[in-house]
Design goal:
CATH architecture: Beta Barrel
Structural class: mainly beta
CATH topology: Barwin-like endoglucanases
Number of domains: 1
Largest sheet: 6 strands, mixed, barrel
Number of helices: 1
CATH class: Mainly Beta
């Protein structure tokens, strides 16, 4: 987790609350390659962004282009993430707002889902 003190100066696009789910590259129906085309097998679950550095990968719906950057906040902890994957059950008006990539489906199952998570969109697309 990181503090927003380490964020580059950004304009906030939008902020809202929702539910965060978790998944692994080995989930049922997953092939270990994100919709963007990044291989996320063998623990390769991060992306290096030119502006934000090493960030987590999430799945988001098509309302947000690949490369959209967001801050995920819950109970004083914050994480930066980038949308590089899609999911049919993911979106603002769906059961889960975003789906957070973990190293395995087994690890993801430990977290289940988190309600009342704050999502702050920092950038739309690359």
């Amino acid at each position: 987790m990181l503090s927003s003190d380490f964020l580059p100066h950004v304009e906030v696009v939008e902020t809202y609350q929702g539910t965060l789910s978790f998944y692994g590259p080995d989930c049922s129906g997953c092939r270990g390659i994100t919709s963007y085309g990044q291989d996320v097998t063998k623990g390769n679950i991060y992306y290096h962004d030119r502006e934000y550095g090493k960030v987590n990968i999430v799945a988001g719906d098509k309302d947000y282009p690949f490369g959209t950057m967001l801050k995920i906040s819950k109970e004083g902890q914050e994480v930066l993430a980038i949308i590089l994957d899609r999911g049919s059950a993911i979106g603002k008006n769906k059961r889960f707002t975003f789906d957070f990539l973990m190293s395995s489906e087994e690890e993801a199952s430990i977290y289940g889902c988190k309600n009342d998570v704050t999502f702050t969109i920092l950038r739309l697309g690359f």
